Amino acid sequence: MHILIIGAAGMVGRKLTDRLVASGIGGKAVETLTLVDVVPPTAPAGFKGSAHTLTADLSQPGQSEKLVGARPDIIFHLAAIVSGEAEADFDKGYRINLDGTRFLFEAIRQEGLRSPYKPRLVFTSSIAVFGAPFADKIEDTFLSAPLTSYGTQKAIGELLLSDYSRKGFFDGIGIRLPTICIRPGKPNKAASGFFSNILREPLAGAEAVLPVDESVRHWHASPRAAVGFLLHAATLDLEKVGPRRNLSLPGLSATVGEQIEALRRVAGEKAVKLIRREPDAIIQKIVAGWPSDFNPARAVALGFRAESSFDDIIRVHIEDELGGKIG
Amino acid sequence: MHILIIGAAGMVGRKLTDRLVASGIGGKAVETLTLVDVVPPTAPAGFKGSAHTLTADLSQPGQSEKLVGARPDIIFHLAAIVSGEAEADFDKGYRINLDGTRFLFEAIRQEGLRSPYKPRLVFTSSIAVFGAPFADKIEDTFLSAPLTSYGTQKAIGELLLSDYSRKGFFDGIGIRLPTICIRPGKPNKAASGFFSNILREPLAGAEAVLPVDESVRHWHASPRAAVGFLLHAATLDLEKVGPRRNLSLPGLSATVGEQIEALRRVAGEKAVKLIRREPDAIIQKIVAGWPSDFNPARAVALGFRAESSFDDIIRVHIEDELGGKIG
């Protein structure tokens, strides 16, 4: 089995790599792992197969052709310019997120026209394909009406993926990841950063800033769940999915207040006291435009699973990032 | 007022041109009319302003820049490779319907970056952005999950139009036209052709073939209504539309049986006898995947209007195409 991960240097890409090295995929060993990103990906430690780490920018002509020419069995396309940057730099967002994705899809098609080739392609989409106003729960038949260029680019990637799959050029599946929580690493300035910061920092004994009301509701899944989604998408029988190849994935809908209650139960009052309230009207306004709850009936029926409580999301972080111990 | 029509040589483009010449737009006279298509458009008869007819293929680099450089106030983008051709020729469909549209949008943005320019852009989308399974009536919040490359390309055009409009690069509005009935001219081989053929041909004293059951339901509006939609979209206050710039338009949901009953009422049993039943399993199957009814609440609230009976649709054809007389 040859697996190509595009966007391998990111947080989810690194966790996916580790899991593939440790456990293979769908009961099979991974013989070849090609890791690609715009910054050099780290070679996987302890991997017994053949590993290739490459830097490449998919929006440059010819790059996708090279990657696809090696005929990987499964391609994970995780690479993207994030929401804030795509909004600030219109050209760059469209170049990387739209042209890069389309070049990849087209390179696969062209490779298959030379001699039969039909890899599995897993595309990480986003709940940013949805724009307010929403119903209380977003159903699987709700329209994609994004309110950001990033969401637009992901929605277009989804449409292309369905059409290329329908025409038989590859076996594509697009998965709309919930917001990943608890994101490991340093606090970042993304508008969504506080959802993780208010848990991760107190668990490590540090202060965190909460810029919104406790009533704010959002849609979450752990990094471990995200890797599980990717592996499930890569091995799922796509006959069962049918022509609508893009799925809103399961997650946990929780308010910030519920996040804090879970932190209290798992780590005590001492941790909760480290959350400092600093209301930020700009962040409040951005967050108000985001989806907060879904009814991801199709993905659930197809076997995708996320956490069912924030206590579990916190415990996953303690196990996977803190060696089982609270700081 | 300078108006640019891209796709001016098609049936709707020609009718739109005639109406603009006869009646102006939004109470204003048209001073300049630029008519563009891949085949030479006909110069408008009796037009007092300045008319330019050009052949151009928007998917060729530089073509859109030239058209947009003249800074038209209103741009009608009607040009497209039709559904059957886009399905048969994947590259051509994406080149014309996706790249051509994107080049146009981007040319407008670049023109505006040089010095402020923000035209009204009316984009004809299609009910082909929807793919089965449907609810009985397709609501305004129903997802775009096309089952053709043409529908995919139109859905992508819609997403780009909303994003470019949101960013303030132009004032865009996308309108999903119902199937146009009664289409004037010769019977054609499009799978949807029979909806018009079974009325137009008998009204002219000729035989027509009906390849599907009378129970088949579909979504219709007259060519006159289509021109009305375009003019309304070009002059509507877009503040009222908000960020979701693509609208399913009103139409008439009718079964083939109801079409035939209307023909009987308007033109008598003699006309109905000219319909020959020749069931065609392939056309039945294609048509079964098409939308048949909508609840276009937003477009109705915004003042778009279509016919409310098939008798009216037939009378429009008799008035506009047959000089008021049945052959």
From TrEMBL, chains A, B:
Top-rank taxon, per record: Bacteria
Alphabetized InterPro entries for the sequence: DenD, Epimerase_deHydtase, NAD(P)-bd_dom_sf
A Pfam match: Epimerase
Stretches assigned to the NAD-dependent epimerase/dehydratase domain: 3-207
EC number, as in UniProt: 1.1.1.410
UniProt GO molecular function: oxidoreductase activity
Keyword NADP: yes
UniProtKB keywords: Carbohydrate metabolism, NADP, Oxidoreductase
NCBIfam families: ErythonDh (NF043036)
Protein name per its UniProtKB record: D-erythronate dehydrogenase
Provenance organism: Dongia rigui
Lineage of the species this protein comes from: Bacteria, Pseudomonadati, Pseudomonadota, Alphaproteobacteria, Rhodospirillales
